[in-house]
Amino acid sequence: MKEQNIRLFDAAKLPDELGQVRAEMKELADIAKGIEHMIKLQGDGVQEGDLYRTTVTTSEVKRVDWQKIAKSFEPSKQKIAGNTTWSERTVLKLSAHKK
To answer: Is the predicted pLDDT of residue 32 greater than 70, yes or no?
Structure first.
């Protein structure tokens, strides 16, 4: 069974507890973003750790500016194509190793 981290809270200090937890989460999120950036810099592929594996994949993402199209009311296929852009997206997938 997995060990659970249980914290007892004083109701009068709940705002402080929440603030502290959110600050810790922000710090950890910033650390995670930095690690993700370093992994993505190594390019597409799989990287194995002792406990986790990362998979980096780069693909194109198609976006249509529907607001621009809607403003013109009766858009033609050419107008839709003219307001459609392609951009590159890199995705990192994190998964736990099975024991």
So the answer is: yes
Q: Quote the CA–CA distance of 48 and 35 in Å, as a whole number.
A: 14
pTM tops 0.70: no
* Dihedral sign of CA atoms 63, 69, 74, 76 in order: negative
pLDDT band, residue 93 (cuts 50/70/90): confident
DSSP assignment of 3-66 equals: --------GGGHHHHHHHHHHHHHHHHHHHHHHHHHHHHT-SEEEE-SSEEEEEEEEEEEEE-H
Q: Residue 72 to residues 9, 84, 90: CA-CA distances in angstroms?
A: 56, 15, 33
Name the residue ranges covered by the structural domains of the chain.
9-41, 44-99
Say how far apart CA 54 and CA 29 lie, in whole Å: 17
Q: At residue 8, does pLDDT exceed 60? A: yes
